[in-house]
Structure formats: structure tokens, C-alpha cells
Write a structure and sequence with these properties.
11 strands, alpha+beta, 8 helices
């Protein structure tokens, strides 16, 4: 879980991930690999060994229950033990033979010592092991669940990193907006003083009404309260969208466009270097967020929430 503000908690999952899970069993070795990339829908493909394709329906169900979107490739590699090399001990028969042998030694004097190898050679004591399909299926599905958990954990870690980067930039945008709003009265006042100073230098005389009109025009041009309010609103909306479940990439992409639009307007209304610099910093932060999104997607959706 990643905290994006003091009020909301979101869990972002990246659409890209890879998982590799190797498991050893008495019957052999299984290697599961899961690869996922961004996709508008859930698209599943499987590469299963011949003779084990009957697992696909069960695998599909488990993936559909775990994932909402993405193009997922699932592959399995098997290395089975040679059936002829697997020997199983019939413990019941072996124990019966040992008990009988001990009884004979008690009843017959000078009986030969018991040779364990002779017991093992007795028909039925050592049996060739046969692979149990049900057991293998159960083990394979358990290993697949582990691989799926790894894949989801990898998606979560990458999503957590993205969430942190997004919040850092949203906080920076809010700080710039707050600072610029606090300085706007000083900026407007400074522009008025600059106008009066220029008029004094030119020894120009303007009637009070005309001077008031010029002052009003300066204030109107420098007025960016509406843009600052919209920036605050968009930042809040980004955080709100991040708390929603499901795919939210398209909405966030739109909000990035709106944030950039307000930053451009700020730049066009800038009357001092401080305002221009603030607008430039805003556009850099917004572009950084958009770049992070581009790294996480290749389609219309950016990432999803779990």
C-alpha cells in the first residue's frame, strides 16, 4: 500500500511484470514463467507441454480471477523422472518378510543371518514407481499459484514506485501554486510601482482616471487566481482518481493535459520572471509524470488499481 496523501490510500499495480518459479518434486522439476504487458483487455496465451494442455481451462480461470487486464503469456517446462528408475518400497511386505525371517532364526538353530538385500530381492518388495497424474497436476497448480503471486507482487512493487513518484510531483505542484498565490499581491503591487516610476521618469502626466485604468489592466493581466484554482482542483482530482478501482489511465491522461493547459496559461500571463519560472517548473513536473506513465503503458490505458 502506498500513501499518496494524508487522506487517501491507493494501491497501484503496474501492467508489466515477469515471474519465474522453479519447483522440485519427487516426480521431477517444473518451471513456470509468467510475462505480462499492457493491454486494453485481458488476453491470455499458454505454452504447455504435450500431454498437459488439459491444465489450460483451470489456469485461465485462475488468471481471470487474479487479473483484470493485460496481455499475459504463461509457459511451463517439465522435466519428469524416468519411470523405470523410480523404485518404491512395499513396507508392509518387507516387514512381514523380516518378521518371518526372525521367527525362523528363533526356531531353527544355526540359521543364516538375515540379508537385507535378499529381502529387497523378494518379488513385490521393490516396485517400479509409476507417475501419478493427479499428484503431478496438484503440484503443478500449486506451483502456478506461487508464480502468479510472484507476478502480482512484482506488479505491485513497480506500481508502488510509480505512486511515490506521482505523489512527489503532485506535492511539488501544490507547493508552487501555494507560493505563487501568496506572492501575487506583491507582484501586482510591484508592477503598479514600476508603472508609476516610469511615468515619473518620463515626467508624464496622466489623469487619475486614465492611471486607474492602466492599473486595472496590469492587475487583470497578472490575475492568475483562476488558473491557480484550477491547478489545485486538478491535483485533487488526480488524487481522487487514484483511489478509484479499475483502469484509470485514460482519465489521468486527460488530467495531465488539463494541468499542462493551465501551466501554459500561467506562462502566457506571466508579468515577472518569478511567474515565468513557476510556469516552467510546473510544465517540467507535469511532463515528468506523463513520462512515467508512458513507461508503464503502450495503449490507451496507463495502469490499473487492485
Amino acid at each position: 500500500m502506498t500513501l499518496l496523501s494524508t487522506e487517501v490510500t491507493v494501491t497501484i499495480s503496474s501492467m508489466t511484470a515477469f515471474a519465474h518459479r522453479r519447483s522440485e518434486h519427487p516426480w521431477g522439476t517444473a518451471i513456470w514463467e509468467l510475462r505480462s504487458v499492457n493491454h486494453r483487455y485481458l488476453e491470455l496465451s499458454f505454452k504447455l507441454p504435450e500431454g498437459w494442455r488439459q491444465l489450460e481451462p483451470e489456469l485461465r480461470d485462475r488468471l481471470r480471477n487474479a487479473l483484470q487486464r493485460g496481455k499475459v503469456e504463461c509457459s511451463l517446462r517439465l522435466s519428469l523422472q524416468d519411470q523405470n528408475q523410480q523404485l518404491q518400497l512395499n513396507k508392509t511386505l518387507a516387514q512381514q518378510l523380516l518378521d518371518t525371517a526372525h521367527q525362523l532364526r528363533t526356531d531353527i538353530a544355526h540359521a543364516a543371518p538375515i540379508d537385507v538385500l535378499d529381502i529387497m530381492r523378494w518379488p513385490g518388495v521393490m516396485q517400479s514407481g509409476e507417475l501419478d497424474g493427479d499428484t503431478i497436476t496438484k503440484d503443478l497448480l500449486a506451483a502456478f499459484v506461487d508464480a502468479l503471486d510472484d507476478q502480482r507482487a512484482n506488479r505491485q512493487r513497480e506500481g508502488d514506485e510509480l505512486a511515490l513518484l506521482i505523489e512527489q510531483r503532485l506535492s511539488s505542484i501544490s507547493e508552487i501554486v501555494t507560493d505563487l498565490r501568496a506572492r501575487m499581491p506583491e507582484i501586482v503591487s510591484g508592477q503598479r510601482d514600476k508603472l508609476r516610476s516610469r511615468l515619473a521618469e518620463l515626467q508624464a502626466e496622466l489623469d487619475a482616471e486614465r492611471l486607474e485604468q492602466e492599473m486595472a489592466l496590469i492587475a487583470q493581466k497578472a490575475d492568475v487566481d483562476e488558473e491557480l484554482d484550477r491547478l489545485d482542483t486538478h491535483v485533487k482530482e488526480v488524487r481522487r482518481v487514484l483511489t478509484k478501482s479499475g483502469a484509470v489511465g485514460r482519465r489521468l491522461d486527460f488530467l495531465m493535459q488539463e494541468l499542462n493547459r493551465e501551466a501554459n496559461t500561467l506562462s502566457s500571463k506571466a508579468v515577472v520572471a518569478e511567474s515565468t519560472q513557476a510556469a516552467v517548473e510546473l510544465k517540467v513536473l507535469i511532463e515528468q509524470m506523463r513520462e512515467h506513465f508512458r513507461k508503464m503503458h503502450s495503449g490507451n490505458q496507463i495502469f490499473q488499481l487492485r
